[in-house]
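no rush on this but wanted to send it before i forget. what follows is a protein written twice so to speak, once as letters and once as structure tokens for the fold. mainly i need to know what kind of three dimensional shape the backbone takes. thanks a lot i owe you, the record is right below.
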Amino acid sequence: MTSHKAPRLRPGPAPLKKTLTAAGAYVIAIIFIFPYLQMIIAALRPREEQREAVYLPSSFHWSAFVEFWSGGLAGNLLVTLEVAAGSTILVLLVALPAAYYSARHDFRGRMVFLFLVLITQMFQPTAMLVGIYREFAQFGMVDSVWSLILVNGGFNLAFAVWILHAYFASIPRELEEAAAMDGSGRFGVLFRITLPLAMPGVVTALIFTFIAAWNEFVVALTLTTTPENQPLTVALNSYIGQYQVDWQSLFAGSVIATIPVIVLFALIERKVVSGLTAGSIK
């Protein structure tokens, strides 16, 4: 008997479609990264060279970053972190039970409740600044971090309820019923079964709320009066004068303000993958 060996297949070149897709992805990434790179270079560029039409400066100066911490803006960065974190925690504490109950219970007026939640998403804080200011002034909460937390939490609550309602509704009820038959209580079912499966939705609501509160400017400018109680978005506005702009300090503060958001995305990406994996296992 003669044995015939199968011919070896040589790996061919990468498909043209795959190559073009990768090239397009790199081009898009460069387009999005370029403004941040320009911001870093402008922060390191000496003040006397800010108006020169040269991409790279003659030397890199770190003075703007040192002045950021010595000039008191570190306290404004802490205020921004408190407002963003507080708003996110508030939204999750309110949106999780509201979305879970509306997804699991067919109560009277359920669609009206969801419709009203959707309507509140249409309102913007800018159109309600006068009423917001008068309300917090009556309670003596003007120039307070708590007022910013309440406003940012309230205006991001609608999106969180809708996205979490969609995730909770997509989870089969049979999984919760099986866990209940195994002896798990209502809270045990929620924290051991439902929340791990809905983790992508929770993370989406967390990211949306945190970044929206982190970047908010108009309400913070209206409700805060003293420099030490202002978030970083308002404090950076002090570098923009009537006749000149301190571009080096402005860009240095913007770079520092961007770093926590990047770190958050790096941490959240792992949680999204773990949440999806946990859902597939359970």
